[in-house]
Amino acid sequence: MKENISWIFELTLPTGNHIRLKELMVELVESSMNEPGTLSYEWTLNEDNTVCHIHERYADSESAIVHLQTFTEKFAARLLALGAATGFVVYGNPSAPLKEALEGFSGTYMAPIGGFTR
Fold first, then answer.
1. CA 113, 45, 118, 26: dihedral to nearest 10 degrees?
2. CA spacing 20 to 30 A to 12: which of 34, 46, 51, 85?
């Protein structure tokens, strides 16, 4: 738990954009599966397909930075063309370089205070 970094990114979509979102999701999931430090990468939609949550979990800050570099280069503009970023919550103890890489997302940081991970 000490080194893992995770976040939930929320994207609010105009009606109908969920179809294009699902197409882009396939590309993003395939890309992320090749990143050894990416532990979890799950996408969910609400009932009316207007809010998407992307839950991501990384082995450490370095792994998250690797993912962000690929995401920024290949996917960010296309994803943000589909909807508005309306929430971003980061869990764990991100390194200073990771916080710097996440600056543009205006995230809320939640530091661990207890619990466990299996």
1. -120
2. 34
Question: Edge-to-edge strands of the sheet including 84-91?
Answer: 38-45, 51-58, 5-12, 84-91, 108-110
Structure tokens at 91: 């869990």
Is 80 exceeded by the pLDDT of residue 2?
no
Query: How many CB atoms are located within 10 Å of the residue 19 CB?
Result: 10
Rounded Cα distance between 104 and 43, Å, is 21
β-strand partners of 85 = 11
Q: By three-state DSSP, how is residue 24 classified?
A: helix
The torsion angles phi and psi of 62, rounded to 5 degrees, stand at -60, -45
Task: Report the C-alpha gap between 108 and 114 in whole angstroms.
Answer: 18
As beta bridge partners, residue 108 has 89
Evaluate whether 41 touches 32 at the Cβ level (below 8 Å).
Answer: yes
Mind listing the pLDDT tens digit for each residue in 99-112?
A: 999 998 999 999 99
Mean pLDDT of 9-33: 97
